[in-house]
Amino acid sequence: MATYTTYTSVGQAEDVSSLIAMISPTATPFQSMVKNEKTSARTFEWMEDALRASADNKKVEGADASTITISPTTLRSNTCQIIAEAFAVSGTADAVKTHGRATETAYQLSKTLKVIKNDYERAMIGVSNALAAGNASTAREMASIDQQISTTVDAGSNSTDALTEAKLLTLHQTCYTNGSEPSVFMIKPADATIVAGFATATGRNREIDAKTLTNVIDVILTPFGELRTVINRQNLSTHGYLIDPSMFKTVTLRPFARTLLAKNGDADTHNVVGEVSVKHSSFADSGMITGLS
User: Fold this and answer.
1) pLDDT at 8
2) Is 74 helix (H, G, I), strand (E, B) or coil?
3) For residue range 219-250, what is the model confidence (pLDDT) as tens digits?
4) Which of 20, 95, 119, 219 is the most buried (most CB within 10 A)?
């Protein structure tokens, strides 16, 4: 007697999960920790100043006053970069019933907004780009933050060297001497494992939990202050940054928005575009270790 099984049946219902798995990174630590300000110009400017160094200051009683030489302020500038991505969805794709999303347009818009946010993070901290004013045929490009930080320490004598605690302390001391108060040490993921190794240096003790293995350093206390370690997947691989978030701003000329372009056939074309930049209030603030392997 033959047994009827699912291998021969017709018309079985599909079982497709309503969840769509995606592990692509979307965290943007630098954007999340700094404030935003608006601009009304394509190229925006700001001024910075500094006090003279302290000196031996004593005067003879009754002496005539002598004037100092006044230094002008320093004018800085950056330009707004247009960041955009367009996608097209057919009318049928939005009409059919789908799993894991209400409509294809809504799903693709959500993805586009996430990748544009990553692109913005990369433009600020993941590349080393000088300001490019652009023209009718060349896109404008913002100066990345490494172009706006004057305090640097080289990782070593070679073209690239591994991160060391000594170099971090040297940079932190220089920042402190300059008057800067960085609170964040932003690094790439590979350097986070090196920082975790700082705890194993001779003479240092760690609390041990028999059931939990802990190998991470979230906060570094140095003679010059407290630093919170922040890993950034978009971080420029050759740089580690000591950052005072209060001294940086993301700058917006046009906030990111979606525009439905003119219809051409049986599809809707959506363009997501924004015009943005980044500003460091004083180039002498914060610092960076360069030449990291």
Assistant:
1) 66
2) strand
3) 999 999 999 999 999 999 999 999 999 999 99
4) 119
Give Cα 125 to chain centroid, integer Å. 5
Average pLDDT, the chain: 90
pLDDT of residue 188: 96
- Look at residue 17 in the predicted model and tell me its pLDDT: 60
Residue 139, classified by CB atoms within 10 Å of its CB into exposed (0-12), middle (13-18) or buried (19+), is exposed
Rg for the chain, CA atoms, rounded? 27
CA 254 to chain centroid, in Å, comes to: 19
DSSP 198: G
Nearest to 285 by CA among 251, 241, 252: 241
* pLDDT recorded at residue 26: 83
- Sign of the CA dihedral with 110 first, then 115, 117, and 118 last: positive
Distances (CA, A) of 13 to 9, 16, 131, 191: 11, 10, 57, 50
Cβ proximity of 216 and 255 under 8 Å: no
Per-residue pLDDT tens over the stretch 250-269: 999 999 999 999 988 899 89
Q: Which H or E element spans position 184?
A: strand 184-187
- The answer for residues whose C-beta is within 8 angstroms of residue 186's C-beta and 6 or more apart is 29, 30, 125, 230, 231, 232, 235, 240, 241, 243
